[in-house]
Amino acid sequence: GNVSDEVQFVYSIPITKGVGNQNVVTIVSGDDKYFAIREKGGSVVLTAMARRGASEITSGLTYKWSRMVNGTWQTLVDQTGKSLTVTDSLVDTTGIFKVEVSQGGNLIGLDTQTVMDLSDPYDIITNPNPEDETIVSGSGGSVTYTPILVKRGQTTKAMNMLFYFVFMDSAGVILNPATANVAAASGTCTEAMCQQAGGNVSWTISTAA
Fold this sequence. Notes:
With 209 residues, the chain is mostly beta strands. A 5-stranded mixed β-sheet has the order 3-10-9-6-7, with no helix packed on it. Strands 2, 4, 5 and 8 form a 4-stranded antiparallel β-sheet that branches. 3% of the residues lie in helices and 49% in strands. The protein folds into 2 domains: 23-117, Immunoglobulins (Immunoglobulin-like, Sandwich); 122-207. Strand 9 and strand 10 form a beta hairpin.
């Protein structure tokens, strides 16, 4: 099966946070496993929380769950509840899931969450350049990753592999749709991508074979 890894880094751009009666949707842990599957056959629970200001929204809500598959969001058509149970069969080392919450047919918010499968025997070493994964504002710089596939806990390449690189903002919008499903040996996050994402870029590396 595919092996994937997800890397988070923060780009230092001031972000204005919403105040007042803004609608906010957040995926929280619905159990005591905190988004990590630790044994074969295991699972975790993701729960969508919708708030307007400080108050939780509970009436008239509908839920649409999706997962990232080869650089695109795939709707989990039979999952329409407030909570989603993620089994290890849905996760290859790392899986990214998205919930969209609507009220009265209108989208009020969405969120994404990464789930780790710590029982997977393989891992990805991302090999960032620069190593500190930092882009200086205004520099036009970038961070390039040239990953290798290894057995978990080791640092020696297990096999030659190309990868899919998917860059996303905090809402799960793909920043590189033209290349997200193109297998490559390396992937680059640019300052422009960070600016488009409002300062918070997450991305997925998954094996191409």
